[in-house]
């Protein structure tokens, strides 16, 4: 069982603390209970504030922590909830938090900033030279205050090593479910989302993701191609065109791409497309043909073949296992699912 500490801070939105509490606290529990199965809690969750006192949120709601940050003796995951929009005033007010965050990061804990909580992680100096996202409303202020951070506010989630950030207020749900999947597997993450009547995380959705897969390398020309693929994977893609983007011959490009990512360019593209299609299948929004077209496959038979090779199941069987129920789909979207 992993220990999660959710850090409560003043002047932020309470949802950025409460949503992670609910996701981690119900993982392995709520779905099993609803199905009459033995519960299997996956996380021990605690809340802590800088000094152990109640914090006052921007919504006027007070949140009372379990303890102060100094009382935390073990943490596998640290979630930093959102601070207020006045970074010049709010960030210095949490000075005691920053050495504490650096200490837990150095000890191997995963540190994640939700919404404007990313500014507090940046204030601790942990995001320099790394990609990070935050709420669009504080993105410019973050760029001015932390120019060494690679701010990407268009992203829902960013991940670099054991540092994560999520975008808007409710992106804390996406980040929390992503970590549940990472630690507990896809099935537990989907069941947790179903139990809370949530869509599965939007990092599987087209246009959104964490740091591109296998991007932790220093080959900037390959990295730029990965970034482009990340945004354009649903478009027609040819390896020769990617090689031109990298300024290399096709053979040299293919060799260098596989050397740093572990995948050929074509297999890498397929993985991006299949990840996006999984999200759409899980949320029952479109027909199989529509999903195939949406992620870049014109031939639905080819899509089915690639999907099965990557996931071990055909799309319809995957939907039946992981998709939300018809009643829940109507509750979420007002739409009747396609078959």
From TrEMBL:
Record's keyword terms, sorted: DNA-binding, Transcription, Transcription regulation
Annotated InterPro entries: Class_I_gatase-like, DJ-1/PfpI, Homeodomain-like_sf, HTH_AraC, INH-QAR, Tscrpt_reg_AraC-type_HTH
Domain HTH araC/xylS-type: 223-321
PROSITE patterns on file: HTH_ARAC_FAMILY_2
GO MF term set: DNA-binding transcription factor activity; sequence-specific DNA binding
Pfam short name (any one): HTH_18
Keyword flag Transcription: yes
Cross-referenced PANTHER family: ARAC-FAMILY TRANSCRIPTIONAL REGULATOR, TRANSCRIPTIONAL REGULATORY PROTEIN
UniProt-recorded name of the protein: AraC family transcriptional regulator
